[in-house]
Specification:
Elements (H helix, E strand, L loop, with lengths): L1 H8 L4 H9 L8 H14 L21 H20 L1 E6 L14 E5 L11 E9 L20 H18 L6 E7 L6 E5 L4 H24 L7 H5 L22
Parallel strand pairs: 3-4
Antiparallel strand pairs: 1-2, 2-3, 4-5
Length: 255
């Protein structure tokens, strides 16, 4: 959904969307993504989508590199947080069974503070993030406290999973938590509980209908490459892509 919207705006490449979401190609992870994979695997036991076991990078003396040392400490912080909040992992990597819209959660957990025999009344969703932008308020993926409510790119995930949980389990407003752990140090992390009002749910559902119509249209006419030097430089398809850019686009300036 997010990738399609970016493609519509011209900021995402159709070739990458086609490979990732249509052809289901397992693209290699970037260094930052692999560090996140390692953190999630060590914290919850959940493997990445392609099933490989993430390995820590080491120095010549056998010690972990500094980023991986930090993430090992952040794993301890995650487990401490879960214990303090009285949350317990029920399952990881759960794929919702909605016939129209997909979603795979990092963690389905039980809130043991809720005294009920009905597991659905105790169930919560946790999305784990590792980020070097934990205090960044300017970029779309920054987690600064004062700007978090403006970050639609981040918060759409919470809206979507709440909707899917309502459809599948009948939980009208399942608690959803982002737990964000810094990759820049080994002590800083944040917890956001996302509350969604009825108008936001309706808007999200309408957006899904519109984006599905747009997807069907693009599947008929085909996705187009939208190369740029910055996007192509970090794209895993770059070595074999026939459309990759190796020089910047000339931009006209009118004065």
């Amino acid at each position: 959904c997010k990738a399609l919207y970016k493609y519509k705006l011209g900021s995402e490449c159709g070739i990458l969307i086609e490979e990732s979401y249509i052809n289901k190609t397992n693209l290699p992870s970037s260094e930052a993504q692999e560090l996140g994979n390692y953190f999630e695997y060590k914290a919850t036991g959940q493997l990445p989508r392609d099933g490989h076991v993430p390995e820590a990078k080491t120095l010549k003396n056998g010690k972990l590199t500094l980023p991986y040392q930090r993430m090992d400490k952040q794993v301890e912080n995650f487990k401490h947080l879960m214990k303090r909040l009285n949350f317990e992992i029920e399952q990881t990597g759960y794929a919702f069974n909605n016939p129209k819209y997909s979603g795979i959660t990092d963690v389905i957990a039980i809130d043991k503070n809720i005294k009920s025999k009905d597991i659905y009344k105790k169930r919560i969703i946790i999305d784990l993030k590792s980020s070097g932008l934990i205090n960044d308020k300017w970029t779309e993926y920054g987690w600064a406290d004062e700007s978090i409510e403006e970050k639609d790119e981040l918060l759409i995930q919470a809206i979507h999973y709440k909707m899917l949980a309502n459809y599948e389990w009948g939980i009208e407003d399942i608690p959803f938590y982002f737990m964000v752990f810094s990759t820049k140090n080994d002590w800083e992390y944040k917890v956001f509980r996302v509350n969604v009002d009825e108008a936001t749910y309706k808007q999200h559902y309408n957006n899904l209908i519109n984006i599905k119509s747009y997807l069907d249209q693009q599947l008929k006419i085909g996705f187009k490459p939208k190369p740029s030097l910055s996007k192509c430089n970090s794209c895993s398809l770059n070595p074999t892509c026939l459309h990759s850019a190796d020089i910047p686009k000339i931009q006209d300036v009118y004065i």
